[in-house]
Amino acid sequence: MKRLVLPKAYQAVHEALEEAILDGRLKTGEPLPTETDLAGKFGVTRHTVREGIRVLEQTGFVKREAGRRLFVSLPRYDELAPRASRALLMQKVTFRELWEVALQLEVCAADLAASRNSRKLVEALRENLSQMEAAIKRGRDIVELDIAFHSLIAEATENRVLLLAREPVTLLFYPALKKLLKHPKTREISPQRLLEAHRHIVQAFQDRNNAAVKEWMSKHIIDFRRGYDFAGLDIDDIADSRVEPARK
Amino acid sequence: MKRLVLPKAYQAVHEALEEAILDGRLKTGEPLPTETDLAGKFGVTRHTVREGIRVLEQTGFVKREAGRRLFVSLPRYDELAPRASRALLMQKVTFRELWEVALQLEVCAADLAASRNSRKLVEALRENLSQMEAAIKRGRDIVELDIAFHSLIAEATENRVLLLAREPVTLLFYPALKKLLKHPKTREISPQRLLEAHRHIVQAFQDRNNAAVKEWMSKHIIDFRRGYDFAGLDIDDIADSRVEPARK
DNA sequence: GGTTGCACGATTGTCGAACAAGCGGGTATC
DNA sequence: GATACCCGCTTGTTCGACAATCGTGCAACC
Questions:
Q1: SS3 A70
Q2: Chain A residue closest in CA terms to B106
Q3: How many Å apart are CA A44 and CA B237, to the nearest integer?
Q4: Residue A241 has what DSSP assignment?
Q5: Would the pLDDT of B3 be above 80?
Q6: If we measure between CA atoms, which residue out of A124, A104, A222 comes closest to residue A165?
Q7: B248 CB neighbour count, 10 Å cutoff
Q8: Measured between alpha carbons, how far apart are the two ends of chain B, in Å?
């Protein structure tokens, strides 16, 4: 016997609004009706409407722009992901799980990006390369740059499903990468190896050699894991750090 | 000049609670303190607390069990995914994007599952096979069974990152698969081809032939796309149906 | 003794009215 | 024409209140 769940008004409000957005009755970019308006329309109190809106806000269907007023909008993949990553953290995901999927997704991204090969991508990657060279020379942190390098490739695929799938993995990868690059045993060699791999990848992109792109990307990710082992870090440790990459 | 965003009390409540859960101060399975308690603790009104809780609820950090009381819990990957899928729908994702990623993830899942090969998986898959044979004989719908087949493999990987990445893809794949299996041009042949592929996959699992597992899974997914083309459906159409698979 | 019924407290869901603060827009002023 | 000011609208928050429901303990009943 299924426990019957009686309808909550604020849930109804949430669903009604979401449906209106999906149906296009509320268009993205337009401001959401005021709380009092909605309250009147749905025949409930402003309080109830507000609770419904909170849910909507969390899902990314409305955003606050500029002033206080809420605007209808589309959820972006990188807004959905942080929640997912935190969920994974709670589940005590191991680095192995993360790495196994990252390997596939990064190679996949590289492959797709290569097949849509654009000059702009190569340019952007070259720019990233030279920034990284400079950063290494000055002993600066290169984690952000590495993340950016891979993001550039992923975005070049123009595949939103891939971007969505990749985002939580990236977020969790960040602390692992940081840990590795700061580790005494790998601090010296890792940045060089990393840069070297990136160079090969860019070169392969430029040569429009799809097979080489995939191969180098694969080597690159595998090498990362090797460094992890080499540093004496346990791949079956949980990826538990909660450092998050800066966003602009 | 960055627009300064003044702190909202309900957001603070949400964050405080989420942190308490992540820190383990609030343990999963335990009931959340009552609204009045929290209101007192945070020094805000019950209503403000409620708004914070709505957000928490949406994120999956609290669930309603049985009665009305809320219980602390862990978000599950299949609770996060529907939101992600809906977001993708809004972005008018094409079937091509979906398929490109699905191909990689399914092969990846097959690979990982094969390396952890367990007798239980093979048994479950065999069971699924015979159900599907029966369903085809009776002309019943096999979409659910196909989804279940692939989910069994994915779950056998015991990789939560993979499960999370895969879930939104699966949800969106569902309507596409349904469309194909109902299409007049492919209705007759597709189920047979699908079943045949599944048989090969199961056999490869049983033989502990990892390479064969990957190869057949790959063929299987590629064949799906071929059917899509054959039916005259445009792979660059948006995956816009909002049918959702039944959950038990 | 076990079950049923009931009263009571606790908790959630909803409502109503109110106010401070910030933003937008119109208006007066120079 | 530019600037300052004022006023209304909207949001965030508070206080107060009440119906519905759930859990529980207690009592009555078979």
A1: strand
A2: A104
A3: 40
A4: -
A5: no
A6: A104
A7: 3
A8: 51
Question: Shortest CA distance to B33 belongs to which of B11, B10, B8, B13?
Answer: B13
Radius of gyration of chain B from Cα atoms?
A: 22
Q: Is B192 on the interface with A (CB under 8 A)?
A: no
Contact A243, A85 (CB under 8 A): no
pLDDT tens for A176-196 read: 888 888 888 777 777 888 999
Measure CA to C1' and name the residue nearest D9: A34
Can you list the positions of beta strands (E) in chain A?
62-64, 70-72
Task: Write down the pTM of the prediction.
Answer: 0.80
**Which bases of strand D sit closer than 7 A to a protein CB?**
9-17, 21-23
| Record: contact A100-B161, CB cut-off 8 A | yes
Strand ranges inside chain B, DSSP E:
62-64, 70-72
Cα(B245)–Cα(A65) distance, rounded to whole angstroms?
35
What is the pLDDT, as a whole number, of residue B6? 65
What mean pLDDT is predicted for residues B109-131? 92
Residue type, B197: A
B residues 199-238 near A, CB within 8 Å?
A: none
Q: Please report, for residues A108, B101, B102, the alpha-carbon distance to residue B167 in angstroms, rounded to integers and kept in the order given.
A: 17, 12, 10
- Cβ(B46)–Cβ(B35) under 8 Å? yes
Residues 6 or more apart from A197 whose CB is under 8 A from it?
Answer: A216, A219, A220, A223
Residue B26 is encoded by which pair of tokens?
């609030």
A107 in Cβ contact with A166 (< 8 Å): no
* B80's tokens: 């996060």
pLDDT of A26 higher than 80 = yes
Residue B91: CB atoms within 10 Å: 18
Contact criterion met (CB below 8 Å) for A165 and B169: yes
CA distance B3 to B18: 26
